[in-house]
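INFO batch 0412 | record 1 of 1 | parsing
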Amino acid sequence: MRKRVAVIGGGIAGLAAAVRLRDLTPPDTEIIVYEQSGALGGKLRTGELAGVSVERGAESFLMTGSDGAESAAVGLVRRLGLERSLVHPHRVPAALAFGGRLAPMPAGTLVGVPADPSTLGDLAAASGSDADAGRPVLGAGDDVAVGELVRERYGDEVVDRLVDPMLGGVYAGRADRLSLEVTMPQLAAAARVEHTLSAAVRRAQAASRRVPGQPIFGAIEGGLSRLVGAAAAASGARISLGLPVRELARTPHGWRLLLGPAATPPGYSPPGFSPSGSSPDTRTDDVDAVVLAVQARPAARLLAPIAPVAAEAVGGLGYASVALVALALPPGTPLPELSGFLVPPSEGTLVKAATFVTRKWERPAGAPVIVRVSLGRVGEEERLQFDDAVLADLAHRELGELLGGELPPPATTWVQRWGGGLPQYAPGHRDRLAAARAVLPPGLTLAGAAFDGVGIPACIASGERAAEDVSKSWSA
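INFO prediction complete | emitting tokens
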């Protein structure tokens, strides 16, 4: 009998799961991707500004994994026949903006954690004690906040001026709240062997085995939305947009999805809704397996009736909200010879990072100078509550101040908001996730950034593993 699989969530994790399911399951398997918004891709969305392609979400992906092999993103690019469209950023350095200056990003750090803090010069002074206490820095199976470990061993300045802005650039989070195991797994593994943090950093760096001269980051010519479209096409999935999955229930042979707008609150009966609170658009769909590739809270809501322990384990994950502002400055606007910069939270700006798009990526001659500015960190949601025009003006003003001078007015701008867009992995996240997966009923799997880490390769690998688990459950 023909199998049917539901992939709930049309971000890159869900689409990667759909492609892998197509490769692993019989040709007549029906795959349905349910995406409650009106578009696939999640945070992969290519926009346009003044005739130039500018990403409205994730900008690029790592080319290799920690083991030196090609990343899951590159593997998917090859599977989709897009390898000839791979492009790489220019080799332009980045900087840290603090104290009214742009300081070059120090070499030889691991997500801001140096192997030797004495090499940082006046950027940050080490004040902790990294002495060998005769045992590994981290116990077997233990997890700590990044900031807790680095503050103890290297002191506050290393965290505040280096690690915090680096983690803020990726997660919009704070080092004192983010799991070492999730954000720096190589360092966590090394810290369970080495007796000092400096030795652990060196071990983690040696284990990465990057080939000198090999590009670190990649993207797709024409934008990452091409990756989204190619994945959807290759999956052969039926795409359902704009219709949320409201409920998930077990049946004797699989799963039943209840689809439709949210239920009406008691006592409220707007036109078009039945007195029972259900929309006339509500319908059900029966499938044999489900890949749940949505954020933590929607996942917990769907899991609660069928796997309450799993729902509780994943439902507590917090998120940070951010906004991206793209500015098209007049051609010839002078910018430093940098790819961009990061801003430590101690500077007090809403701007946490900036990318000089026209320096970092190949762009047509004579094109406007494009700068993409990232605003907001965890806990700063209220500071983002301006309308788009005010937020763009704020980004423009703070950018000029951080660069040390007033910038010319932009010809045009856009603002992209990602409300609750970036997971905040507290220490112990991996253990909580393992406990959740252990109690899931057969034929139900989890995928995506909420569970297995941010970044395009992590999301793709997560989706592919979920698809493999579905396939294995059928062959068992």
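INFO post-check: Confidence is low (pLDDT under 50) at residues 264-278.
INFO record closed
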